[in-house]
Design brief:
heterodimer, A: 6 helices, 41% helix, B: Aspartate Aminotransferase, domain 1, Aspartate Aminotransferase, domain 2, 7-stranded mixed sheet, 16 helices, globular
């Protein structure tokens, strides 16, 4: 088992220095994510103009994987349409869980491809997907009162 | 380091001092699970507070039930049932000896500590708690000694009152006393904190509670394996323990209750084996302890728990305690010498647990990295979220000790934590 497969430079970097670690002003969508197993928490806010995510940021605390996943996600979806973001989520999910979906396109995933090693660590998959589930909730929902949970 | 730890450390340094001699290498050979590699490294098991490994004697006892004495208990006249029943009741006597209860009738078999506490909360609690009454717990409790009381408080209108913990992770007697009122009906308190290893000052807490007219339940899940118990000397009214933390199988535990209380209490669950006679009009319950043992129990698990106790008795519980105390002292030194490591919980009286955080890495990342080095520790809130909140942290990494651990295990943990520093520092 090679830990460097899990803790790639991109992940260590974003874990230590998360990007978009602030709330956008203004913002019109919010999602809350909580992983009760390890205590990871994130609050995600975004500004949706029509169909486009014009700004996005998050606050929270947790392990390097969960923070890096949130950080790289905000970079990946900023300026993209909701449909693009959901498509990315699908590819990312397949990448880390091998859920039987179509082979993820590494070019589309870009930096997110660094999470490919997570699949070898089943206990850490929830850490990687927490931010994405939270995004899904924020995009779906008018009701952000119930936090999404990954456990 | 506390005087007790210093003494134990000195004793370990000047081996073979402690009588009877504790031969950890011989003990390790009794635990087959230790003889394996994980991720290509020899297993270093530092998660006994979650569940302890099982000695061959326990595995043999469980196998013996299923391969020879496989029958239901207390029911049939055939020989296999007699043997199963004898083994089951022999385990009850083993538990009685282990906790030093006056009678084996005061020992109820449960699934574990959690079920023991729920039994008391639902049976004694629902019958005796009234609106405005108070249940007193401490800030150190495991969720299993919080939630059952919240449930029964919700059902009865009683209130949950919490005695706080100090920065070092201790419970001060005066903080308990200050919350004892004439409305306090029961005090439910851990013997040892699973998250921090703190040993609580049980005897004075129990005396104070009794002076105030309250009963006392002790959560012995972590205490029974590491400090032992004498329920008569302590004077507690209930004592719950888990077999699997005591080197026995999962899914079997025991509850001690004073006979007079148990006799007054209504059954916890209804079913077979807990009755004297049943008609559709009326059911007469069996005597204690059978009144509280409805249905076919975890026979093999209970018999395995009895074998675990007999194993501990043969080993010498006190010698094992001294061994663990010396290891805890050594582990404390090793962890404190690593820059960026902070131990959470520094009670003067403490056993078997090293809870810590690191500046460089989140506990979850620590857990994954040390696992790759073959070192098994627990990370998270340890089912004690209020303890984590008390220290404003989401989680800790926790190395916990069993009687098979060695200084080499601690050294392996130290090296693995250095790997964490390299990767995240």
């Amino acid at each position: 088992m090679d830990l460097r497969e899990l803790y790639q430079e991109v992940i260590l970097d974003h874990g230590k220095n998360p990007r978009n670690f602030r709330f956008p002003e203004p913002s019109n969508r919010e999602g809350q994510g909580y992983n009760p197993l390890c205590g990871d928490r994130i609050t995600l806010r975004l500004q949706l103009d029509g169909d486009v995510i014009t700004d996005v940021g998050f606050q929270g605390s947790g392990c390097a994987i969960s923070q890096a996943a949130a950080s790289t996600m905000t970079e990946a979806i900023k300026g993209r349409t909701v449909a693009d973001a959901e498509l990315l989520f699908g590819q990312f999910h397949t990448l880390v869980t091998d859920d039987g979906g179509p082979e993820p396109n590494m070019d589309t995933l870009g930096k997110l491809a660094a999470f490919a090693g997570v699949g070898e660590f089943p206990m850490r998959v929830k850490c990687a997907t927490l931010a994405w589930h939270t995004l899904h909730q924020a995009l779906e929902g008018d009701d952000a009162s119930a936090p999404v949970k990954t456990e | 380091m506390t005087p007790a730890l210093r003494q134990a450390a000195a004793a370990a340094g000047a081996e073979p001092a402690a009588p009877p001699a504790f031969d950890v290498e011989r003990v390790r050979r009794d635990f087959p699970a230790l003889d394996q590699t994980v991720h290509g490294k020899p297993l270093v098991y530092l998660d006994s507070a979650a569940t302890a490994l099982k000695p061959q004697a326990v595995i043999d006892a469980v196998t013996g039930v299923y391969s020879r004495d496989c029958a239901n208990i207390h029911r049939a006249v055939h020989l296999l049932s007699q043997r199963a029943t004898a083994g089951y009741e022999r385990a009850r006597e083993a538990v009685r000896r282990f906790v030093n209860a006056g009678s084996a009738d005061e020992i109820i078999f449960t699934r574990g500590t959690t079920e023991g506490i729920n039994l008391v909360a639902q049976s004694w609690g629902r019958a005796n708690l009234r609106e405005g009454d108070e249940v007193l717990i401490t800030g150190l409790e495991h969720h299993s000694n919080i939630v059952p009381w919240q449930l029964v408080c919700g059902q009865t209108g009683a209130h949950l009152v919490v005695a706080p913990i100090t920065d070092d992770g201790e419970v001060r007697l005066e903080d308990v006393k200050a919350r004892l009122t004439d409305r306090t009906k029961i005090v439910a308190v851990a013997q040892v904190s699973n998250a921090l290893g703190t040993v609580l000052p049980l005897r004075p807490i129990i005396d104070a509670a009794h002076d105030a007219g309250a009963l006392v339940l002790v959560d012995g899940a972590q205490g029974a394996p590491h400090v032992g118990v004498d329920v008569q000397a302590l004077g507690c009214d209930f004592y719950a323990l888990s077999g699997h933390k005591l080197y026995g199988p999962t899914g079997a535990g025991a509850l001690f209750g004073k006979r007079a209380l148990l006799e007054e209490m209504p059954p916890y669950q209804g079913g077979g084996d807990m009755i004297l006679s049943v008609t559709f009009e009326e059911t007469l319950y069996a005597e204690v302890p059978h009144k509280f043992e409805a249905g076919t129990p975890n026979i093999a698990g209970v018999i395995g728990m009895g074998a675990a106790i007999e194993y501990l008795e043969a080993l010498g519980v006190q010698a094992a305690e001294a061994h663990e105390a010396a290891l805890l002292a050594y582990g404390t030194e090793v962890l404190e010498a690593i820059p960026g490591v902070r131990i959470v919980g520094k009670a003067r009286d403490k056993v078997a647990v090293l809870s810590f955080v690191m500046d460089a890495a989140h506990p979850h990342d620590i857990g994954t990295i040390v696992d790759a080095e073959g070192v098994a520790i627990r990370t998270g809130h340890h089912c004690a979220q209020p303890v984590m909140e008390r220290y404003c942290i989401a989680a800790t990494a926790r190395a916990s000790l069993g009687l098979y651990n060695t200084r080499e295990d601690i050294d392996a943990l130290g090296r693995a934590l250095t790997r964490v520093q390299e990767m995240f520092g």
